[in-house]
């Protein structure tokens, strides 16, 4: 049987100083942005009962809000408070004065397949009224092969010779992504959920954006491009400036709901 | 990627006397008819498809109780008059009991897997908004995919194989994972409309593991095994005949008649 619920249960209720690729080795890397903005002891990663970097899911919420994403949204290399999702929920809390736990289903390296699965499995608990997502590029794939634990395939990691030709094919990519978006779309319609989303853009995600925008209108997709101005502690991911700007972009689009 | 594949598009609003004309090789063509024992004459029935290419009523009709059927060739009724198909027989029982106006909406497509059924349910949910879904699922190994082209193809395990994907699609864990994704789509749609679903799975090959998978992971599907069903031949000599269809309709009716 497939281990459908989550593969991160082993880190449930733990706290760690590092979280790959936020490693002591990467921390020492030099970037063109000068000295690392953080020191090793500035923050750590605390995971909830299910292994997500956010509040526990058994809390009451006046306005259930769920965030979806990958490393950026989980906040690899950043204190949780600096992540765009956390900043956005702070703005919502400030405006509404409501009790709203921070429920973030983002996982480092996740694909849209993983995000759809997580949203599906926790939907019964969260019943979100709002979903805000920062999708990764659609080439990332979750799959099971010769094991019942889902793996992630990406263009620059997780490659396997026996699946590469199939997974790299653009048509396969869009068909599989479509399946994930059908799950998400059906869930948001279940709860009359308002969704707003964007997608990180490094190289060739314009077609992915068009696919999303043309086929899933209820996702309220908006494009964004924010230049690298600084780096996170891992020297790989965006630093705090990107997150502030992204939170503001989301806020401009959603503040009228609150 | 197109919403409906070429196979379905080619038969929208058309009628055919034999199913081999629809593009499925080795099913219900004249040679099979000649060489097999059968219950039907060659001109007893044909295949008439609706505006979207499905062998059922059009989707623009009003329905007092919206009911959708899912399945593969058995539910589409290969080798059989549409009236003898289990789905049609079940609908007749429901109509009789309720005296309601209920069109026959059957999204089954021959040869298709659960992936295609999930996608079709998603696509037509907007129009049909089913209150009931009744499904007779095929084996899990059938896969819908796109590769080196935008048209959705079906990989069948025993047909439509393709060397570049065989080694992946044949893997048991790949199969369960992809099937689970399709079931997540179906399950989420059911919950959208508070739809009641009942389903079974054809059982020509013993596969209790697949049945358990549905029962354990998707309890809302109200799965029940399709055991002890007589097996006779349809006109094509490849699919089950009218006895099998009637027994399947009766099995479903026993499970669902309290709902009407």
Written account of the structure:
The complex is a heterodimer of chains A (258) and B (260). Chain A is α/β, with parallel strands linked by helices and 258 residues long. Chain A contains eight helices and eight strands, in the order E-H-E-E-H-H-E-H-E-E-E-H-H-E-H-H. Chain A has a four-stranded parallel β-sheet with strand order 4-3-5-8, with helices on both faces. In chain A, strands 1-2 form a two-stranded antiparallel sheet. The longest helix of chain A has 21 residues, at 170-190. Chain B has one domain (6-259): SGNH hydrolase (Rossmann fold, 3-Layer(aba) Sandwich). In chain B, 37% of the residues lie in helices and 11% in strands. Chain B has helices spanning 6-9, 30-35, 73-76, 86-98, 114-128, 163-169, 172-193, 208-217, 242-256, and strands spanning 15-16, 47-48, 67-71, 105-106, 132-137, 143-145, 153-155, 196-201. In chain B, a hairpin with a 7-residue loop joins strand 6 (143-145) and strand 7. The interface between A and B is large, with 35 and 36 residues.
Mean pLDDT across the residues of chain A is 93
Structural class of chain B: alpha/beta
Q: How big a fraction of the residues of chain B is strand?
A: 5-15%
The CATH fourth-level homologous superfamily of chain A: SGNH hydrolase
Structural class of chain A comes to alpha/beta
Mean pLDDT reading of chain B: 89
Number of strands of chain B: 8
CATH topology of chain A: Rossmann fold
The CATH topology assignment of chain B is Rossmann fold
CATH architecture of chain B: 3-Layer(aba) Sandwich
Spell the H/E element sequence of chain A.
EHEEHHEHEEEHHEHH
Overall geometry of chain B comes to globular
* Poorly predicted residue ranges of chain B: 24-28
